[in-house]
Design a protein that fits this description.
With 497 residues, the chain is mostly helical. It is 67% helix and 5% strand. Helix 7 crosses helix 8 and helix 9 runs antiparallel to helix 10 (174-183). The longest helix is centred in the first third of the chain and has 26 residues, at 3-28.
């Protein structure tokens, strides 16, 4: 079998595994809310239900635009975020296998090494996390590889490559922006010492220019389209607060009692546990300084980013940076010659196995959602309400003109398999319904106001008795533990509040 066919076969295996894991996550209801929100809004944008201002001013731009394009070119009901995430897993697997073969690793070693890297627990968690997490993994890998290239040859090509990767990193995930910011004080250490001594400011400016320019352009676009700079991510402060509460339940006050410092230690430990090969390979190459500085800078950037997000409360939970472990291991294997030497192959594979096991342990440390099933503080209502929203979405599949607050309950869109046919907050008809206090839609779906979902539902707020008393001229056609779906009896019926 040719090398190209081998690469394609491994990529297909990774894509299939990614799709199976994503489907299982949707089935059991463990897909993160951010991913569900991305899925729903990408479906809405793909069907033309989102104004252009909201599309161009959406952040993170890379995963949203990619998922929207996939949603546009695929049939209704296609799980676009799962396709994008699985496709990126396949891409990373293909890149890593090709790189390992390029540095001389034999097939019998390259295949298991690639599978151990591509199916690393941190990457499998990222597939469940969705396209943003997988784009973060891709750009972290590219930045890490670029650090080695910069140290070897600090020329225009290498500088612009790293600068472009930092740009992609910043617009792929909120934590990617944190990593790009955290990298600023360390970029001078990635270039050749002679150049760093003579013109460090010029080099750092060239590395950061694409990111700074794009950020300024994004701010301008958001100003041109006022009020459109929404994100499918929940508010960073809320995301971080939920993560902090989970960490507190799992580990109490931590080692030091300072969340930023404890997070720094936790991320560092998770990185070492998930990529022991990087530590050993750097030790094997300790006499060659150009091979030692890049992984040290890489680690410093990731750890500092975790501290920055906790200290500033601007970038959400730091869980997503766990993908740095397999990315670092892959970079080291392809850039540090001793890691690919035949005499070290047995040790390398053993270290990759240890990294796979350590990656699972690292997730247990840094992601409270992983350890939640082993504790007794799990709130069962969250998953139940998600499943109820999926169910009511399924009940609307053959019905059009369903008035529902899909922004508050994006799982309804997933259950329906498409956004077309829903009258949601992005529709003018929804806004007029709230403004005029009149319900004219053929169908109305509303959650129990006593549920977590129902407390923030805009229809419940505008029509307080809607769930309990129903709508005059409408009859109940479906209900579950959380939701009720009403249908209009007369085509011309109107409910005024």
């Amino acid at each position: 079998m040719s090398r190209g066919l081998q690469t394609a076969a491994l990529a297909v295996v990774a894509i299939v595994v990614g799709l199976v894991i994503a489907a299982g996550a949707v089935h059991v209801g463990i897909v993160p809310d951010d991913t569900v929100r991305l899925w729903a809004r990408a479906n809405t944008a793909g069907t033309g239900g989102v104004a252009i201002g909201r599309i161009v001013a959406a952040y993170p731009a890379v995963p949203f635009l990619t998922t929207t394009l996939v949603a546009m070119v695929t049939p209704d009901g296609t799980p676009a975020p799962a396709l994008v995430a699985a496709g990126l897993l396949g891409l990373l697997t293909a890149l890593w296998y090709a790189a390992l073969r390029a540095v001389g690793l034999p097939v019998l070693a390259a295949v298991p090494a690639t599978l151990l890297l591509g199916l690393h627990p941190a990457l499998l968690r990222a597939v469940v996390g969705g396209p943003a997490d997988m784009f973060l993994a891709l750009f972290i890998f590219l930045v890490g590889r670029g650090f080695y290239d910069l140290r070897a040859r600090t020329e225009t090509t290498q500088v612009m490559a790293v600068g472009t990767c930092l740009l992609g990193l910043a617009f792929s995930h909120p934590m990617g922006a944190a990593v790009a910011i955290a990298a600023m004080p360390f970029l001078g250490l990635t270039v050749r010492p002679a150049l760093a001594a003579t013109s460090p400011f010029s080099v750092v400016t060239a590395l950061l220019f694409p990111t700074v320019f794009a950020a300024a352009a994004f701010v301008y676009v958001s100003w041109v389209f006022p009020g459109s700079g929404w994100s499918f991510y929940e508010a960073p402060a809320e995301s971080l607060a939920a993560w902090s509460a989970g960490i507190a339940r799992a580990f109490g006050d931590g080692l030091t009692g300072l969340l930023a410092l404890d997070t720094t230690l936790a991320v560092f430990i998770a990185l070492i546990l998930g990529a022991p090969l990087a530590v050993m390979a750097t030790y094997w190459a300790r006499e060659r300084r150009p091979l030692v500085a890049p992984p040290a800078v890489f680690t410093a950037c990731i750890v500092t980013a975790a501290a920055v997000t906790v200290a500033t409360r601007l970038f959400g939970a730091p869980t997503a940076v766990t993908v740095a472990a397999p990315a670092l291991a892959a970079v080291v294997m392809t850039r540090v010659p001793p890691a690919a030497a035949r005499e070290h192959l047995a040790k390398v594979l053993a270290l990759l196995v240890a990294g796979w096991i350590g990656g699972a342990a690292g997730l247990f440390i840094i992601d409270p959602a992983i350890s939640a099933p082993f504790r007794h503080d799990v709130d069962p209502n969250g998953d139940r309400e998600r499943r109820d929203a999926l169910a009511v979405g399924g009940a609307t599949i053959d019905r059009d003109g369903v008035l529902v607050d899909s922004d508050n309950a994006p799982a309804v869109v997933l259950g329906r398999h498409r956004a077309r046919g829903l009258v949601g907050p992005l529709d003018e008809a929804f806004a007029l319904t709230l403004l005029l206090g009149r319900i004219e839609a053929p169908f109305v779906a509303v959650p129990d106001p006593q549920s977590v979902t129902g407390m923030n539902d805009q229809l419940n707020i505008a029509f307080p008795g809607l769930y309990r008393e129903g709508v005059p001229g409408y009859h109940l056609i479906y209900q579950n533990n959380t939701w009720r779906l009403f249908a209009r009896l007369s085509p011309n019926g109107v409910y005024e509040h």
